[in-house]
Amino acid sequence: MRKDNLKLDKIIDFEKWNKLQDSIALVTKTAIITVDYKGNPMTMHSECQKFCAIVRKDKEMAKYCQKCDSRGGLEAARINKPYIYLCHYNIVDIAIPIIVDDKYIGAIMAGQIKLSDINADNTLEQIVSEPNKDIKIKILQDLKEEYDNLPVLSFDEVENIANMLFDLCNYLVEEALDKNLALEMKDVINLNDYKMTKEIFSGHKTKSIENIKKEMSNFIINSYVEDKSFNDNNVSISRTLKPAIDYIYSNKSENISVKDMADLCHISQSYFSRLFVKEMGEKFSIYMSKLKIQWSKKFLEETDIPVTQISEELGFNEPGYFIKMFKKYEGVTPSIYRKYYKK
Fold first, then answer.
1. Domain membership flag for residue 80
2. Which residues pair with 108 in a beta bridge?
3. How, if at all, do strands 83-86 and 103-115 pair?
4. Would 308 disulfide with which of 258, 260, 283, 319, CB 3.0-4.6 Å?
């Protein structure tokens, strides 16, 4: 994986994340901020409590706040799970590690709450040393009302929030890795003879690789096939059938079944089949075969990609069936079609 893809802004789309972060903070009654591996803020503070907002603006106290964010994130990365701890004002905070390729690149910090279970405080670690006692007492006296108004949750509620954020963070990372893998593959692909390199796939889950291969197949097909959608065809289709037609043209590499499309349209297979013939003029299986043969001709005309690979890219179960269908509709085999087209 490229080094620049390990940067936090390559993993998280902050424009979208900020809105989601605000919503989560509002619902959970916790303040949330996303920081890099040094503890530097990468987002605004969502639902930051007044007490903490004032403390963070104090030049001396802000250092302790940043240390909490930094050390909390590092501890979460060390144990590779949410870390719940106390800040220098005995306020509960949570650190959710963001880890990519075993490298800690940042954290989602949540908290600014007090616990309703008084004894639970004793089980949590105060992650940084307390500030000067006199300064601490003075701030607490000056901001007593704000401190008393901090949200109060049970320890179980805090743990549930921590686990939810951890699952969400893992989901964001996995989605980002899939996206980055697709971008890397597009960069290295030679459309005439592409190969999925071991280096690119290293560290990715099988499911992710299969999804990316599917995406890349569609990318390759769409590079040659002009009719990328059904919109250009002057055929009127019903709202019921439209999801299936859109899916067919958006997923050219799939071996799509009647059942898949009937389920997508939320109708029975028999009704889907009748409706398809009525609106498209022929059976689903015949329509799909003709369509894929039409798409395959673009590959044969413009590339040297092997026939077996074209068959695979277009979702045929086996090359022999592809060749059989091609000859049925075109009168010659794919190899002969290519040979005489390129003369």
1. yes
2. 34, 96
3. unpaired
4. 319
Sign of CA dihedral 229, 235, 236, 240: negative
H-only helix segments in the chain: 8-11, 14-28, 50-57, 59-79, 133-142, 144-148, 155-188, 198-201, 206-224, 242-250, 258-265, 269-280, 284-302, 307-313, 319-330, 334-341
Q: CA-to-CA distance for 91 and 86, rounded, in angstroms?
A: 5
Question: In the chain, how many domains are there?
Answer: 2
As a whole number of angstroms, the distance between CA 52 and CA 67 comes to 14
**Cβ atoms 29, 113 nearer than 8 A:** yes
C-alpha–C-alpha distance, residues 215 and 312, integer Å: 13
Mean pLDDT score, 35-45: 85
Note whether 258 and 278 are within 8 A (CB). Answer: no
Token pair 């690119």 is found at 200
Count other Cβ atoms within 10 Å, centred on residue 123: 10
- 58: helix, strand or coil: coil
Is 183 inside a domain boundary?
A: no
Would you say residue 189 lies in a domain?
A: no
Query: What range does the domain containing 236 cover?
Result: 194-341
Q: Is residue 332 part of a domain?
A: yes
Residue 270 has pLDDT above 90, yes or no: yes
Q: What is the pTM of this model?
A: 0.53
| Strand-strand pairing, 83-86 and 31-36 | unpaired
User: Which sign does the torsion angle of CA 229, 231, 233, 238 carry?
Assistant: positive
In this structure, of 59-68, 147-156, 160-169, 324-333, the range with the lowest mean pLDDT score is 59-68
